[in-house]
Amino acid sequence: MPLSPIFLPIVHQIVQVSAGATAGQLFEWGDTPGFSTNPDRAINLTRAESNLAPIDPGKLPLPKARVASDVAELLRQIQEHRQGRPLAELFLWLVLALATLELFFANRAARPAAKFSTAKPEPARVA
Fold it and tell me: Is the pLDDT of residue 95 over 90?
């Protein structure tokens, strides 16, 4: 539906009816999207800003922006964003390290301590 020519006018009418105002009161044309001195207004860009030609990723204003060069890369980035990075291997290594530490400390704590009462007395020496 967003690709059909009727989509945008329908969205405008929905916004108008929801806000109880006319289109002239709600929308204004501007140079930067989303920024306005009046927070009740949405700023629309000119049609030249709707150019869908690819741009150089180095010219993007956001340094952390991700760019996908093909569909497979896009799907991988979407999956990574939605599901995150796999943590199972990291948690298994953490469990192994904790189990090793627990074994070390448990063995150290379970060692029998030398008691003074069980020590063998030395035989008395006759001079």
Answer: yes
